[in-house]
Amino acid sequence: MPIDPDFQKNREKVGKEEGVANWGPIDPPEKLGIRGTYVAVDWDICTGCGTCIEVCPAKLYEWVDTSGHPTSDKKAFPARESDCIQCFQCDKRCPVQAIRVIFWPSRCLVAMSYLFMAQMMFGLGYGIFMGPYLGLRIPLFVGWVIVPIGFFFMASPGIYFPKKGIPQEGKTTMDTTVLVDSGTYGIVRHPQFLGVVMLMSASILISQHWLSAVVGILTLVWGYSIYLPKEEEGLIIRFGDDYKRYMERVPGLNPLVGVIRLLRRKKKK
Q1: If DSSP codes are grouped into helix, strand and coil, which group holds residue 239?
Q2: What is the pLDDT of residues 112-125, one digit of tens each?
Q3: What is the pTM for the complete model shown?
Q4: Measured between alpha carbons, how far is 38 from 136 in angstroms, rounded to an integer?
Q5: Dihedral, CA atoms, 211, 139, 218, 157, nearest 10 degrees?
Q6: Which sign does the torsion angle of CA 249, 255, 257, 261 carry?
Q7: Chain-centre distance of CA 258, in angstroms?
Q8: Residue 193's CB: how many other CB atoms inside 10 A?
Q9: By C-alpha distance, which of 226, 16, 31, 6 is closest to 100?
Q10: Is the preceding peptide bond at 29 cis, omega within 30 degrees of 0?
Q11: Main-chain phi, psi angles of 45, to 5 degrees
């Protein structure tokens, strides 16, 4: 029997081990429960084969001695589950289905989201109630034109994943097992991040305030240099050669190049 996909609802959290949640019931050495929340390993199923440790590119697993347990005397422990790049290799390749990786926003993405919201609220609020700081009308107009386009691109996962994606059984639409490459994903590989770029840029143009510009630029540089490379790495591992070919067809964030390439592909058809 595989790990319970709803273990967070059906089991009680009984403590933590090195910062990783333990889900009961636990009665060692025969019953050890589940370790982890977003990268969860059912130790009562785990046979200690080591497949997860071998395939994990983030090296988040460690061996833990579990002498006396019926299935094996060592288990894979998700010691650094927050480092998971969500490639789902351990989840898919565990021979006894003892692992469940759940899509969740990384700490980097959560921090970026807070900065994004703060910058947006300040920039749009300042522009609406105080007027543009520099008083320039054309940037103000351009900013408001960009806003609805940015929201559309940022909403891409919610628009296209339910229609085109095929999630793993019992998981969310974000856990798709197929590469979505149509709609906005046929223009850029990261439409959601492009939407964030557009909205933060619009906030700068509308407010024309130095604080909005500083926070926006630093957040976007952080996301582009740290968040996107990590996400790209996970997608390459997750979808393999399909994603590499997708990278050759579709640019990461340049919508102008993306539209030109899309039109060329349609013309060839």
Answers
A1: helix
A2: 889 999 999 999 99
A3: 0.79
A4: 47
A5: 120
A6: positive
A7: 22
A8: 23
A9: 6
A10: yes
A11: -105, -35
Structural domains present in the chain? 7-101 (3.30.70.20), 107-268 (no CATH)
Alpha-helical regions (H) of 46-190: 51-55, 89-93, 107-129, 137-154, 156-164
Question: Which tokens hold the place of 53?
Answer: 């440790």
Token pair listed for 219:
């957040």
- Torsion sign over Cα 189, 192, 196, 201: positive
Phi, psi of 34 (to 5 degrees): -115, 140
Give the span between the Cα atoms of 21 and 78, in whole angstroms.
10
Query: Alpha helices of the chain — where are they, by DSSP H?
Result: 7-10, 51-55, 89-93, 107-129, 137-154, 156-164, 191-207, 210-222, 228-239, 241-249, 255-268
The continuous run of DSSP H or E covering 65 comes out as strand 62-65
Determine if residue 238 is left, alpha or beta; phi over 0 gives left, psi from -120 to 50 gives alpha, anything else beta. Answer: alpha
Which range is least confidently modeled, 7-11, 149-153, 190-194?
7-11
In whole angstroms, what is the distance from residue 140 CA to residue 132 CA? 7
- Assess contact for 161 and 177: CB atoms under 8 A: no
Q: CA nearest 212: which of 151, 139, 122, 117?
A: 122
Mean pLDDT of all residues in 129-156: 96
Residue position matching structure tokens 């223009």: 187
Q: Which residues of 138-156 are buried (b: 16+ CB within 10 A; e: fewer)?
A: ebbeebeebbeebeebbeb
For β-strands 74-77 and 13-17, DSSP reports them as: unpaired
Cis peptide before 25 (omega within 30 of 0): yes
